[in-house]
Amino acid sequence: MNTVDLFGMNYKSEIYQSLQKLVQSILPLESNINVNGSQGTGKSTWSQFILDQSGLSEHYGKIDIKEMDEDKFKVQLEACRYRHILIENIDYLHKDNQAILAQYIQTRSLQQKPVIITTSKRSLSDLAREGLLRQDLYYKLSVFNINLPDLKQAKAEIKTFAEYYLKAFATNYKRPLMSLSNDAMVKLESFFWVGNILELENVVERAVLLCEGEVINDKHIRFDEFQKYNSLDLSLGMSLSEVERRLILQTLEHTQNNRTKAAHILGISIRTLRNKINEYKEAGLI
Length: 286
Fold this sequence. Notes:
Layout: H1 14-25, E1 33-36, H2 43-53, E2 61-64, H3 73-79, E3 84-88, H4 95-106, E4 115-120, H5 124-129, H6 135-141, E5 144-147, H7 157-172, E6 179-180, H8 182-190, H9 196-210, E7 215-216, H10 225-229, H11 240-254, H12 259-266, H13 270-282
Parallel strand pairs: 1-4, 1-5, 2-3, 3-4, 6-7
Helix pairs in contact: 3-4, 7-9, 11-12, 12-13
């Protein structure tokens, strides 16, 4: 997703339209910002895009907390030759290194004031509230907060991103221009997308490789075993009946609607499974 023109996207949802306007308002980048969101929502992509749009594509330092030895954090920080610094996965930064970062920002003059972009899975305010981030560092880093939504919160953009990747991968693999059938879109829009946009990218790439023609249909939309078993989207406040419905329907999809096999996996009788399916149909839930 690193080459996506995030401003060129024709977003349909209010949440992405607002996100687009917010990012446009902070360019060129001169304030500290935090980009946060769940796995696969595009934190690194948006951060890189903001730097590129600010004319800084080759003029910034980068530190990934998850990929480094924390004993070397101070050395890497002091070694940054640029004012603009991207610190990824700031939520993994040890308290001792949080103090080092806070002091680094504090001791710079206005002329040398660093501009820091951080990424995190959770918002800095949540981390500070729970004592996982120093309060003084929270105020220094969160001049602007960019909260990236889960794909399930912006379902209107499933088609937006799917069509983008469809075109991109068709070009990469030297395939003809492709389109998504209605059945393919229904399948994409009914999935839970726990892995968000990154997972969608993976599925579309697979579909492009599987399709021998110019129209991708539902048979080309395939989810691997990891995706199937990690896509049961449960959240606080969801009723037990809804959890049960999702589990039953997902198990049926996994077994390709083999009710005998599904009933065995679920540990219920075929009759019980049949009654549940009829109940969902009568309620208009499937």
